Amino acid sequence: MNDGASVETIQARALEGVAHGFLGRRGGVSQGVVEGLNVGIGTRDDPEAVAENRRRAADAVLPGTRLVTLYQVHSADAVAVVEPWDDRLRPRADALVTATPGLALGILTADCAPVLFADREAGVIGAAHAGWKGALGGVTDSTLSLMETLGARRDRVAAAIGPCIARASYEVDDGFLARFAEADPANERFFAAGKPGHHQFDLEAYVAHRLAAAGLTRIEMLGLDTYAAPARFFSFRRATHLGEPDYGRQISIIGIN
């Protein structure tokens, strides 16, 4: 882990040599229930604090670059980035890819799984927001397909899955399991028994499975539970359980040096 202006930057061995980082809530200026490095434009936080946090986050990973993010909608849609856009005009999508140096691709999460991708040889990178809807819908597949249009090859792509809600913290009902079983009966292996009518879902393992099924051979799971680490990560589900009026978003960033 590296410290850039007190910002905690968690890195993956699979992406060694590529500028990247999975960030939590440490090192920011926000106060209250979103205290720390809240980068969520849609929160009730002070916009100036959010802007400062986003600047710190980008500088902690790749100083001097422009941070590019999306208006995330839990879709399977991916977009290619050639140049930065105004934050007010963010595309509605859930994955970004680029082959352009000087851009920092950012994905916001608060329990969903951030996935960072890199084909070092081709100089192509990607970042995806994989909540259960996007993961089931194929957001990681869309990311890889779009990376290929820029010259990436799946047999060279490495991917890392960052902090997300873990199975022990992710209780779901029968209807939730049924959606996954309908898509593929083998998906039931990602659910552990819970209280009657409920199950514990392993989002991280499911995302890793989708990456492997898409042809990736180098996949790293960081195994960090956002729900269970309140001092380190924001969590939508934890905030909901505590009855808090808002929740922060953390960011995962990848860029081309």
SSE inventory with pairings:
Layout lengths: L1 E3 L2 E4 L8 E5 L23 H15 L4 E3 L9 E3 L14 E4 L4 E7 L3 E7 L4 E7 L1 H6 L1 H11 L8 E4 L9 E3 H10 L7 E3 L4 E4 L1 H11 L4 E4 L14 H7 L7 E6 L2
Parallel strand pairs: 4-7, 5-6, 10-14
Antiparallel strand pairs: 1-2, 2-3, 3-15, 6-9, 7-15, 8-9, 8-10, 11-13, 12-13
Description of the molecule:
49% of the residues are buried. The chain has six helices and 15 strands. The chain has helices spanning 47-61, 132-137, 139-149, 174-183, 203-213, 236-242; strands spanning 2-4, 7-10, 19-23, 66-68, 78-80, 95-98, 103-109, 113-119, 124-130, 158-161, 171-173, 191-193, 198-201, 218-221, 250-255. It has a single domain, classed as CNF1/YfiH-like putative cysteine hydrolases. It is globular and about 50 Å long. It is 23% helix and 26% strand. β8 and β9 form a beta hairpin. The protein has a six-stranded mixed β-sheet. The model is unreliable at 1-5 (pLDDT under 50). By secondary structure, it is of the alpha+beta class. The longest helix is centred in the N-terminal third of the chain and has 15 residues, at 47-61.
- Uncertain spans: 1-5
Helical content band: 10-25%
> What is the element string, with H for helices and E for strands?
EEEHEEEEEEHHEEHEEHEHE
CATH topology-level fold name? CNF1/YfiH-like putative cysteine hydrolases
> Strands of the largest sheet, in order across it?
1-2-3-15-7-4
Structural class: alpha+beta
Shape: globular
Write down the domain tally.
1
On the 0 to 100 scale, the average pLDDT is: 96
- Largest sheet report: 6 strands, mixed
Report strand %: 25-35%
Total of helices: 6
